[in-house]
Amino acid sequence: MLGLGLRLAVSGGRESLVRLVVLAVAVGLGVGLLLIAVAGINAVNAQNDRYAWLDTTGHSQPRQSGPGPTGARQQSAPSASASRAPAWFLVTTDEFGRQRIARVDLAATGPSSPVPPGIPADPGPGRYYVSPALAALLHSTPADELADRYPGTQAGVIGEAGLPAPGILLIVIGHAPAQLSGTPGATKVTVFNTTPLFSCSSGCASHYGISASSMDLILSVIALALLAPVLIFIGTATRLSAARREQRFAALRLVGATRRQISALSAVESTVAAAAGVVAGFGLFFALRDPMAAIPFTGAPFYPSDLSLTVPDIAIVVIGVPGLAVAAARLALRRVRISPLGAARRVTPKPPRWWRVIPLAAGIAELGFFVVHGPPATISGQAKAFTSAGALLIIGLMTAGPWLTMAGARTLARRTSSPSGLIAARRLADDPRRAFRAISGLVLALFITTVAVALATTENAKTPVDWVGPAASGVLIQDFTENVPILANGRPEPQYLSRIVAGAVPAGQLRQIDGVLGIVEVYDEPDRQIPASIFGSSMQAGVVSCTQLAEIPGYGHCPAGAVVAAFPASLFRNLYLSGYHVNQTLAKVTWPAANLTATQLAALPLDSLNVATNGSTSAIERARTVLDKTYPFLQAPRTLGDKSSAAQVEGYEQLFNVVILASLVIAGCALAASVAGGLADRKRPFSLLRLTGARLAMLRRVVTLEAAVPLLATATVSIGIGFAASAMYASAQLHHPLVAPGTAYYALTTAGIVAALAILVGTFPLLARITGPEVARND
Question: Quick one: pLDDT at residue 736?
Answer without folding.
Answer: 74
